[in-house]
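Exercise 3.2. Students should predict the tertiary structure of the chain below and write it as structure tokens, then compare their answer with the key that follows.

Predict this chain's 3D structure.
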Amino acid sequence: MLSTVELIRGQDSMIVEADLVELAQKHVDDYAEKWKEQLELHGQLDKFWDWEFKLQFVISRQSNREGYAIEYEAETQGLMLIETQMHGSRLVEGKRLVYIDGIATAPWNRAYIQRPPKLKGVGTAFLAFARTRSMELEYEGRVGLHSLPGVEEFYDNQGMIDVGEDEDYDDLVYFEYGVFRSPE
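Answer key:
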């Protein structure tokens, strides 16, 4: 386990502790066996993401790629893939950042699919971890990502800066966290 994260149980708004861990075969299997059908049924845009490929051919063979999962009660609640060396900030020229190459929460944690969601805060926990990882790499908390359509408001609400549509990336909106400043 890398760290403990706090999530909010949807049924009663109680805070629960979950584990943030390195992505493993169990998480990929959970995606394929427990998530995929629901994602397809509800037309979610991440339904075609191939987490098996990401684990076997991206993370395991590229030192600049890292994969993570959040588990609660031995069940995979979210998945994230980051890139740590090749992306530069669009806000501060010449500075590196942690790039989130994929972030997904389980279908039962999406308000669009289940109300109330089983758990809230999975995406927020991943973004916080990505910022921590950016600090560890001495990137000053800079994190960037391209948002799937319909999720832009979430990243806006997380305080990320909307840099605009990226014509080189299927016109997806690019978001970035600037330098992290500790509260004084």
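Discussion points: The two ends are 30 Å apart (CA to CA). Residues 3-177 form a domain with the Aminopeptidase fold (CATH 3.40.630.30).
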